[in-house]
Amino acid sequence: MRLINTSTLRFEEFIGQKILPYAILLHTWEEEEVSFADMKDPSSRNMKGFAKIDMTCKLAAKDGLQYEWVDTCCT
């Protein structure tokens, strides 16, 4: 399973390991959603959809969660 670390905004993969609790962002897809490939490019932070990922990371971290899963880029 691929999750986004809420502190670093980088992917971490969990294969055959116990997965820690995580937040989930499910939403309506709009313009400029960030894909897995996009996340590898630092300029993806300028895409409209990145704001949702960033806000979810902040909210998850505030709730004590170190990881989040986003349907547009964690699949």
Characterization of the model:
The protein has about 80 residues and is of the alpha+beta class. The chain has one domain (about 1-70). It is built from two helices and four strands, in the order βββααβ. The protein has helices at about 35-40, 50-60, and strands at about 1-5, 10-15, 20-25, 65-70. The chain has a four-stranded mixed β-sheet with strand order 2-1-4-3, covered by helices on one side. Strand 1 and strand 2 (about 10-15) form a beta hairpin. The radius of gyration is 12 Å and the shape is globular. The termini are close together. The mean pLDDT is about 90.
Provide the structure class. alpha+beta
H-E order: EEEHHE
Q: What value does the average pLDDT take?
A: 92
Number of helices: 2
In whole angstroms, the N-to-C terminal distance is 8 Å
Which oligomerization state do the chains in this entry correspond to?
A: single chain
Fraction in helix: 10-25%
Organism: Lophiotrema nucula
Protein name: Heterokaryon incompatibility domain-containing protein
Descriptive tags:
75 residues; alpha+beta; four-stranded mixed β-sheet; 2 helices; globular; Heterokaryon incompatibility domain-containing protein
Short description:
The longest helix has 13 residues, at 50-62. The chain has 75 residues and is α+β, with helices and mostly antiparallel strands. The mean pLDDT is 92.
Produce the secondary structure layout:
Layout (H helix, E strand, L loop, with lengths): L1 E4 L5 E3 L8 E4 L10 H4 L10 H13 L4 E4 L5
Parallel strand pairs: 3-4
Antiparallel strand pairs: 1-2, 1-4
